[in-house]
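Practice record 12: protein with iron/sulfur cluster.
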Amino acid sequence: MVKYHYEGYSAGKHTVLLRENFGSSKVYAQNAQSVLNKATGFINAYDFTLNPYRGCQYGCSYCYAAAFSPNSQMRQDWGNWVIIKENATEILKKELHSWYKKNPDRPPSIYMSSVTDPYQPIESKQLLTRYLLQVMVPYQPTLVIQTRSPMITRDVDILQQFQRLRINMSIPTGSEKVRKDFEPKSPSITARLKAMAKLRYSFPYRDNCEFRFSITVTPLLPTLPEDEADFISKLAVVDRVVIQDFHASNGRSLIASTREEALALKQKYAWWYNSEQQSYSNFKNKLMAMLPGVEIMEGKEGFGYE
Ligand code: SF4
């Protein structure tokens, strides 16, 4: 496999030049060999994952995707670089065309995205996710979008053209204070909840169409007692709430796992983490008691389309 040297992350000759700085992030652009990748592990119920970008400007402290950085410096600097898959729309067209030649009667199921956020800040300028959605519409895949960004509401006009769509909004805590500790660069909880409310009411019933909406409270972070009831009541805006605890690292550093930054933050919330299983169960029980009309699911099952 070719090893690339990114300007700003290597002392030697650079093979990938810095394209621009966007906010605090270094932005690169590269061609990808494929954009539809076989879905494995946690989301293996899907045919493919689709990641428009490599890297993620949100840089959440617990993000396991940092393990897939091009090199150790970039892994350390997770959240401060992003690589645009420049040829993604052309490649996607070819890949979808090829799928339908082999499977004319079976639309693929696609999970967008597994190791990046398709609506991270650079998307406001790049519009790559928007263009990819436009490519997908005529092929009508079953599509799940996983994001933590209200920017997704920008694309309602295209999203409405899908027939089988689930939108998952990540909101791992109901407390802004906790969010700012674990994911300081992400949009506010209020903005995300408002976005879901807007989306939910932007998809009128249509024959043969299934639009579904989830909030993924994953990894389940502490919510302060004073915020809990209000947060849970606002989750009623969706038809499914998913909870899951931290991705277990089992001491292995080179695989996808919770980053040390988040593990250190756990100390600050010892009142929750000292009895983590109990905290998890208590929260789950409150979800079930307060949201009788909402499907409460855990872990892998909750990330499926159905
Ligand atoms: S938004 Fe998702 S992909 Fe991006 S850093 Fe956070 S957890 Fe990782």
